[in-house]
Amino acid sequence: MSNELHSPDVAYILQNVLGCKWTLHLLAEVRRGVNRPGQLVRSADGLTTKVLNERLVKLVRFGLLEKTSFPEVPPRVEYELTAFGRRFTSLLDEIDRLQAEL
Amino acid sequence: MSNELHSPDVAYILQNVLGCKWTLHLLAEVRRGVNRPGQLVRSADGLTTKVLNERLVKLVRFGLLEKTSFPEVPPRVEYELTAFGRRFTSLLDEIDRLQAEL
């Protein structure tokens, strides 16, 4: 999957994602079509470019997001959920659903 | 739910459970009908009574397990999954399923 040679460890990734509000926020934004770094940095108060970039690199490394660079002037970059990312965000939905039922 | 006044925080509990191999092991054992502390302590090499008891107290506090004391001689204690515990272990199954698909 994407850049990974080994299968991602879902439990490890889930612990990491659930422990970081920015990571959860970014997954939700990309999922609803907010794909460009400039849009993403404006999507939440307090989110800096540095933190945004760290989280995006991590999400690509986890295999949840895929980065595409378009050869345009000015260059355009977009992030999208991978197939694994879509399955993973469905798992996050399940967690929300269970929480809502309690 | 059980002793909790507030709803448990599913994301917090999930992070905690995924981070502890004994906790995952004990949930799986209780789920398949290994309900008594004496059986549970013998269910895994390296699991001490102290660690077992700490994990059982935590799982009851999280609302995942329910403890029942039977007024017998000698006294008998059993642990069972709560309704929340059954939903929660289904979520753990989803994580395993996603992992297996990768």
Automatic annotation (TrEMBL), chains A, B:
<keyword id="KW-0804">Transcription</keyword>
<keyword id="KW-0805">Transcription regulation</keyword>
<dbReference type="InterPro" id="IPR002577">
    <property type="entry name" value="HTH_HxlR"/>
</dbReference>
<protein>
    <submittedName>
        <fullName>Putative HTH-type transcriptional regulator YtcD</fullName>
    </submittedName>
</protein>
<dbReference type="GO" id="GO:0003677">
    <property type="term" value="F:DNA binding"/>
</dbReference>
<feature type="domain" description="HTH hxlR-type">
    <location>
        <begin position="7"/>
        <end position="102"/>
    </location>
</feature>
<keyword id="KW-0238">DNA-binding</keyword>
<dbReference type="InterPro" id="IPR036390">
    <property type="entry name" value="WH_DNA-bd_sf"/>
</dbReference>
<dbReference type="Pfam" id="PF01638">
    <property type="entry name" value="HxlR"/>
</dbReference>
<dbReference type="InterPro" id="IPR036388">
    <property type="entry name" value="WH-like_DNA-bd_sf"/>
</dbReference>
